[in-house]
Amino acid sequence: MIKTELTAQEWKEKGNAEFKDGLYEKALVSYTKALKLAEKDSFDRAVYLKNRAAVYLKQKEYDKVIKDCDEALKISPNDPKALFRRCQALEAMERFEEAYRDARAVIQVEPTNKVIQQTVGSLHEITQKRLRETSNTGNKVSRMLELAFDANIDREKRETAMNNLLVLAKERAAADLMFKQGISIKIHRLLKSEKNENIIIAAIRILAELCKDSIDRTDKMLKDIGIPWFLDVINSKNEDRVNAGQYCIQTVLNSYSGLTTKPESKPNKEMCEKYKKEIDTILTCLLYSTTNRTFTGEGRDAVIELIMRNVHHDTLNWAESLVEQRGLQRLMEVASELEEYKYESAMNVTGSTKTITSVCLARVYENMYYDAAKEKFNAAIDEYIKEKLLDPDIESKVRVTVAITTLLLGPLDVGNGIIARDGILQMILAMANSDDVLQQKVACECIIAAASKKDKATSIINQGVNILKKLYQSKDDAIRVRALVGLCKLSSSGGTDASIRPFADGASKKLAEACRRFLINPKKDKDMRKWAIEGLSYLTFDAEVKEKMIEDKDAIRAMIEVAKSGDKSVVYGVVTTLVNLCNAYDKQELIPEMVELAKFAKHHIPEESELDDPDFLNKRLTCLAKEGVTTALVALSKTDSKNSKELIARVFNALCSVVDVRGIIVQQGGAKALLPLALDSTDKGKKQAAQALARLGITIDPQVAFPGQRMYEVVRPLIDLLHPDCNALENFEALMALCNLAGVSDSLRKRMLKEGCFLKVENYMYEDHDMLVRAATQLINNLIMCDETIPYYEGNNDRVKYLVILCMSEDEETSSAAAGALSMLTSVSKVVCNKIFDAKDWLDSLSYLLSSPKESLQYRGAYIVNNMMKSSKEIAEKLIETNITEIMQALAKSSLPEHEKVKKLLNSALKSAVDYKLLKPNDVDLDSSEVEE
Q1: DSSP label of 348
Q2: Is 683 exposed, middle or buried (0-12, 13-18, 19+ CB in 10 A)?
Q3: Is 192's pLDDT higher than 90?
Q4: Looking only at Cα atoms, what is the longest distance across the chain?
Q5: What is the Cα–Cα distance from 632 to 648, expressed in whole angstroms?
Q6: Which residues have CB under 8 Å from 157's CB, separation 6+?
Q7: What's the predicted TM-score (pTM) here?
């Protein structure tokens, strides 16, 4: 009879064998299967739990170690192995007092165990030190609490005390003490009467710090003061207070979901399931707050931003929940709000509200991954628009038009679907043709947004261009500038194709001049200037307009000043204008054969203006950099829109293509702004930002371009450029920048190796591209300065053999880098010295280096030979058997001054051969002064 199932004991023995071989995943499976077969509360079950805990300890799953040890100790109290493993896990989690308790329990059972004795000793020192620190911290906390919450104390002292508490809250021991003394309730009471905004803001930030990475404190705090209180905190016009409240709510969500502040962070699935009720409650409260009539515009923006930042996480499932909870209708209600309509139940909005709402709607729509979800999204939007249009009054039409405009700025497909319906475009054009200023204004804005696609632009040109021209004659500047932007957008519908001109020749220049007048006029308000920039963002597709604008310093400076204001609604217009001026858009590659085929088929072929040639482009880029455009880009990069981040990265990358302005970009904070863009943007945006960082790292000393911790943070984006999807130029520039970084310090080299740099770089040494091979070899040469690189060459592979081959490269710099790498490897590894002989052409390679007229190559060759001679008698014997000895002796006798260093090395190598008795002293003419080391 064949036995098909193992017993629990056999699974345990299998797990033990796998554990000894380091196969931890397999051992985990085996112990788990043994546990399933074990009897409840049996001694054997305790053994299996302890063994599984040992696996978890290796995998650094400390919570699971503690759980299994707890279970084992219920069966077998005071078991030393279970106690010790739990002690190790607790120590790793910095729960030192609990670890010390377990270590003391173990030593009572095994008093002679030396490992336990050492553990108890070290933990005793740590706990005593922490006790002293806690005592000091406790005194500080108590003193600061007294000062901060006493209304009779001097204002400055209270502010200082609250700020000190904020600093203390970042320390775990102090945070625990503060929480035990009821600081959350104290802050809750304080904010009911406190008028000092600095104290309020510090208090809110303290709560955020207390919630960070602590579910217990977060849970207790929400029970004490509730989520609605946090939303009340946001309801302010003070920007710092709003930001503090927004951060506090995000921290609460992070605690429940396992999110962190890192751009690539994702929620923990198990935590999200466990705390689903709390997470869903946060979303519900945020949704109800979006249309809260008592909220400030700044607070409303912050709430919508919180939804937008978290709605894309599948694990949270906020996108579908939002649709189910009629969240889309609420967002559309906000999207339809107008500052001009002031009535009792009007919502407060800011100049950025529409932009933020459009991005949020777009983010929600992006997460409708399947058709049924998209249908629900569209149905919710339809429901809102139909409800509004059932009311025949003008206000409803105006609100619908404003809401459609917001959709066209966000989920464009949804907005275009609405515009395409019978009567909608006609309604908008009729409003534009009315005598009512407000209708004209909102209709103009909707026409501008609707003309994004060529088919829509053609339709509007046919039906509405005369209306826009009429509106441009209006006496109201707000109408004039919007009509102007509409005309600008229609004028640019041909894009960069110089052969397509919807309007008469010269129209674009005239429109640009009109936009310029609005932009540079200091008497015009910010809203007018913003619209003027948007008009230029369309017109600057025209190369003639680009050249005209770049010569207009006043217009450039005015645009930069508007960008630096921080208004989120100006981001798209400014950045698009800059993208056009820098030619930083995607360009369609024209293959000559396909062009000829298109001509034969009489298809239209796009034409590029000669004003977009490299000479003109470089002049524009240099001018923008010198006028301080980097400061504007730094301000704009704080946007939450990934598409806008991509455009900003494109402009940065175009500017960085000009070597002479890279220093200016670094001085004005460009490198600092590029790092977040390289980590959090669209895929294209990340690539553009990473290439810009590479270009800065090539020209400028990395310690200047990326000071301090930034040098370590820039490593990953640069390594991401070493990908088959990136072009050869991106690969080359990344290799060059990484090479410079690898020359800075050993800790940086280790970071690069940890990020998988070596294997990615190595691939480029085999490319059929001389520049890529050279850059990769030079980078490897620098990485070899790190001891952790040596094992890559000592293993069972042909890496050493390939370096030997590269020493004979026709490219002198590649040859020099390969020889330099071998010089370092042979100086520390006998294995590498021996592996050189595996290369078929090793003798030709060494002879090539020694015979080279280039002094640096000759020196590296001599260094390699000397290292090999000194490594062992066997290796030296293989060298002596060849004619390389004759070359060595000839160079060792050279009287040329440029051979001095080489002579010393080769005399040292020949002396080693004499010491090994492979050569007789008479056979070698050694100068004793030349072999001293």
Answers
A1: P
A2: exposed
A3: no
A4: 114
A5: 10
A6: 147
A7: 0.68
